[in-house]
Fold:
Amino acid sequence: MREMSLTPELVALCEREEPEPEPDGRWTPLSDADYGELVSRFSEENGDGDLWVFAYGSLIWKPEFEITERLRGAAFGWHRSFCLELLTWRGTPEQPGLMMALERGGRCDGFLLKVARADRRKAIERLLRREVWDQESVYTTRWVRTLTEKGPIKALSFWVGPIAGDGVALRQPLERVAWILARACGYAGSCAEYLYNTVLHLEEFGIHDRKLWRLQQLVANEIKMLYPSHAVSLPHAPRQAAPIIHSEGFVERQR
Structure:
């Protein structure tokens, strides 16, 4: 496996204690009834066939539902992008972070995860509660068409196609993204940690995202610049570095 520039030692320099802020009044929280309606909607749209989920980030290594099959696949017309502002979770109002979503254009390689038939409704609800917390973000949960070795598969995915506006910044230069990820940290951990886990697990599963690979190099450089005295003394990272996963970097945006 390729050796990452962003190491656990560098990531540790970004960690700090941050309090959990009050909910942002700009967004409308989803109620239990809202979640129930969404579960029914997506269950009905799925029909009686198999339920597949397209995983492109943390769902790859922490799906939180029973998987009966895993297929490598690609979603065409989408690519991974750190474009969602985080004022909490892995950021603060003083130093907002960024979270990944699928932005339009290109190709995204990931995995199709087949949900156990008996677990489908519960799995949809768990995923919705993990990924989407407000009315304004529901539209980013959608079905995507993917291509696999078994042919095309329709799959449910999250944070797909956010529209530029409040809390969303599309097509940012990698250098700008790296500057933010090297500095942002919230009560759930740092953005550097989330990037590290994402790239590490993609590589372990045989997916090399060239853009994210370049991004982790840039973030490593930023951290070394921020902490020069620490960076000089850092030990060489092992090739098979163990992931550092807190309660896990959910790809969810609490704004």
Q: What stands out?
A: The chain is about 30% helix and 25% strand. Confidence is low (pLDDT under 50) at residues 236-255.
